[in-house]
Amino acid sequence: MHSCAMFDSALLQKYPARGPRYTSYPTALNFSPRFTKPNLLKAVAQSHNKNLSLYVHIPFCHSLCYYCGCNKVVTRLQSKADLYLDYLLKEIELQATHFTQKPVTQLHLGGGTPNFLNDSQLQRLMEGINTHFYFTHDAQLSIEIDPRNMSCQRIDAMADMGFNRLSIGLQDTDPKVQVAINRVQPTELIARLVERAKQQNFRSVNLDLIYGLPFQTPQSFTNTLSAVHKMQVERVSLFSYAHLPERFAAQRKLSVDTLPNAEQKLVLMRQAIETLCGYGYQFIGIDHFALPSDELAKAQQNRTLSRNFQGYTTDTNTDLLGLGVSAISAIGKSYSQNHKTLAGYYYAIEHQQLALEKGLILSKDDLIRQRVISDIMCNLVVDKTAISLAFDIEFDLYFADEISRLSTFIDDQLLINRPHVICIESKAQLLLRNICMVFDQYLSLDTGEKFSATI
User: Fold this and answer.
1) For residues 437 and 430, what is the distance between their CA atoms, to the nearest angstrom?
2) pTM to 2 decimals?
3) Which of 31, 125, 333, 445 falls 20 to 30 Å from 10 in CA-CA distance?
């Protein structure tokens, strides 16, 4: 199916480059502190989702990567992680009481750098999670790692703890780029870790790449993409570097004149997409690639793909519970987010028995638009009839304004509006966010300046 996008630089330059990534709708910008514990407990009680997915945020990093915009704490003190685990395990215990009936089908450790935790700390965390939650026999357990603090023995230890998916921050293999972003890591080490994960029967390995970094050129990026190909990983994530030094202090360490300009970034993106597709990867959406044998690719072919705060996922009919500082949950008809600072997180667990800072109860209109946006982002098809029946609306009447605003995409042959279905062409894959923005009721309330660039 959608094997690769047709790349049209004129079209990419025509549409606005900034927009939400739509890992949720409404987006996190619309969460409110008026959403409190009773709202959350009601959402849990009313949720019809049968399964549970856990996201656990480990905020610590040993050193600062200058491009990073994640919620992180840079420290060399391992003891900080011990204190954090005290509170995290308390939160796990408190939250688990609300989900005793739901089996866990997915666990994802993100960050920061989850392998900042040493083996005994990671073991302590996993034992705590396993004590309070019940996992299905085929659950996906994934962890993001920084290869600079990894060894093959640690891969073995993670396999023993039950992890079966791995995501490695490769970013770029070029030494000059690595020095500029303060992330020097040998490609041979990453290749050894990938190989060891395969020997340990990890179900899939994902490599993260970033384009738009200092000193990147098509020549240097060829070598990075070739290294990915040699490792034969199941998935690749391709992210655009967004230079926002006013928001992320670390990015001020990058000199603007070393960064590729907008035109050069387009060239790098095109190169990456065409090369990865040439290597046999299926282009899943705005930033993911998967081999046709991978579950993500199969889910897209079967139109069962969905999207959550970690990106594309095969999990449907599932509540997402976020644990740890800044983690976001999607439970029933609600979104909620934990406190973003360690001090706020610790205080809330200590005094309120919950780390919740803000959230949102989804209205019927939110749920309808969430469905439309998810269908666009994941499956490139909006089934008007199914949505009309599910929500007791007349699709074309309900979205009369939006459909008229789709005319520019229709004129550019990016989508077809049929009586019962909206079909998005594969060449629109890089502009999915722009199409979704037509259906986003909240955008008119926001300037859009807070969003990352689509390219």
Assistant:
1) 13
2) 0.91
3) 445
